[in-house]
Amino acid sequence: MASRAKVIFLIASFITVVGLITTMGLFAFPAPLPILPLEGYTDYITIILVLLATKLVMELVKPLFRLALAKKIPHEADIYALFQLVSYLIWAGVFLTLIFIVIGAQVVDALSVGLVSAALIYVLQRPLLNLVGWGVLVTRRLYKLGDRIEINRVRGYVIQISLMNTLVREFGGWMAGDTFTGRYASIPNSYVLEGNVHNYTRDTEFIWDEITVSVTYESDHKVAEKYVRDAAEEVVGDMMRNNRSLVRDKYEFADLATYMVEEPTITVDFSDSSVVMYLVYFCPSYRRRYYKSEIVKRILEKFAADSRVAIAYPHIEVVPYKTADMEVESQDLMSEMRR
Question: Which of 251, 288, 302, 337 could form a disulfide with 227 if both were Cys (CB 3.0 to 4.6 A apart)?
Fold first, then answer.
């Protein structure tokens, strides 16, 4: 339906442009056609012609632009983002040209222009902030199409970046983990100036994750640690080793290789009623929940098969407490009952 509507729009735009040019007498067909008296509306017709012609040319050039860059830029999202940037520059040039055509050489009072400009800035401060935010995120490459981001507690997969806002397919929300909710979320571009921008996939698709495992103090902690490490090795061990050079190449400084975890790593700490083990690993951001689930299932299977380890959980245990006086009173009570 969308492609059909686009074809209809292109045909209608072409017919409108040709019709306006003809009625203005700028083009003569072999057969005589009526020429309408449109001398007083020349500027407005010119504006309509330029806008329609620009839109028509942009729609025709768009597939050619993609085809020309397909071999140089592997990701279609990057090609689309580049075309969007080029189209904004073209539209800006067109609007500036139209403003010059409309105003021409008319003398405008400077004070009036200043007052109008101040009023417009006050009224349009939010849209202007969105424009500035768009410029910042494009020039600094805070995110691009196809990235997974979080802004102002909204997480999603970027599918469109316009001058005013960013459109994402939301994940998380009321769903556990990073599952898509099915909703679209529109994020004003001004948020990149006012808050933090979290990008899951700016340099690589990998992010780090952590699983917390609590075992009882009575457990064999060395065996428990081995089971946790074995479970991680089975699920993500080979993947981490095969991709750690790719991840390492994205480090801004060589020193980061010392701090970053590049294979399944476990740290241990004390808790009030358990020994806590923290498993750290990295995996593709879009499958974080899957890998976490697989590791947890294997840990549960290994713990269930060995009585030397047990998972700690909140519970209350009542331990009887006796004193010598309590024992004497109990014996006297038993003697009285026998009588």
Answer: 302
